[in-house]
Design brief:
four-stranded mixed β-sheet, about 15% strand, two-stranded antiparallel sheet, about 280 residues
Length: about 280
């Protein structure tokens, strides 16, 4: 199965006082790179997320973003030491009677009361929402992968047809090329030993023979089709096969000098280039 490195998945839980939202985006990358925001989540949760990703994703840049809202309780801590210091300072002021001071008079003085917010963080709910978003991401990457495979097949079939045309015409082209070369040599050199001329022309014509290139192109096309049909096909291997295909189609376009057949080779080369662009997104 062809899997794309590009994908998107989200999930949300929302009620009166709780909200958990997870968004996961992935794009192509040479390796697996995971980024989690906010980055102050617990070590345990961070480890859980990274392990879950690595089990289902081989390559890609994965960006995970959370949004949390949980119910909370405030705890108030009275700083008795600060109160004693404050009262002691006030006693030094003879114009103020400390017996008349109430707690409400000093509660807003900085340092007297410390407020701590206790958030009831639901770790299991976060894991559940993350898993739902991850499942959607994986499904989305598979859907995109099917689209890429379809594009590949639309490119592979015309290349196969063109190689058949070139293969069936190769001998004919070689003979035409030999005759043309022989005529040109005779025009330039006049009289020339017939046997020696034939040998030289044959050697020049062989240099432009494309039988080997066609054979290698067919082999690479077969390898490409086979790799695309595998359950876990490799984007790196597909990229390598396409590099070889590009090299062979480039050589083919240089060797062929007949306009009609040269255009076939150039069309093949263009199709391979387009596949190479798509291959950058395959996992």
């Amino acid at each position: 199965m062809t899997t794309s490195m590009t994908g998107f998945g989200t999930s949300r839980y929302l009620d009166k006082d709780t909200e958990v939202y997870c968004e996961i985006k992935s794009v192509n990358h040479r390796f697996l790179d995971v980024s989690i925001k906010p980055n102050d989540i617990s070590y345990e949760l961070d480890l859980y997320i990274r392990e879950a990703i690595s089990k289902k994703v081989k390559r890609g840049s994965i960006d995970i973003r959370f949004k949390f809202k949980f119910p909370s309780e405030n705890t108030y801590i009275v700083n008795r030491g600060s109160i004693k210091n404050l009262v002691s300072t006030i006693k030094d002021l003879k114009s103020i009677n400390t017996k008349d001071i109430k707690f409400s008079d000093i509660k807003d003085v900085p340092g007297i009361i410390k407020t701590e917010q206790n958030i009831r963080f639901n770790k299991n709910l976060v894991k559940k929402i993350f898993k739902e978003a991850l499942d959607l991401l994986i499904e989305n990457r598979k859907i995109e992968g099917k689209k890429i495979k379809k594009i590949f097949m639309l490119k592979i079939n015309p290349i196969k047809r063109n190689t058949k045309k070139l293969s069936s015409s190769n001998k004919k082209l070689t003979k035409i090329r030999s005759d043309n070369l022989k005529d040109k040599v005779e025009q330039l050199c006049g009289s020339f030993e017939g046997e020696k001329l034939t040998q030289e022309v044959a050697l020049l014509a062989i240099k432009h023979d494309v039988a080997e290139e066609i054979e290698r192109i067919n082999f690479h096309l077969e390898s490409l089709s086979m790799e695309l049909s595998l359950k876990n096909c490799s984007g790196k291997k597909i990229d390598f096969i396409l590099q070889e295909l590009f090299r062979e189609t480039s050589t083919l376009s240089v060797k062929l000098d007949h306009p009609q057949y040269k255009q076939l080779a150039l069309d093949m080369k263009l199709s391979v280039e387009e596949m190479r662009e798509q291959a950058q997104n395959i996992e």
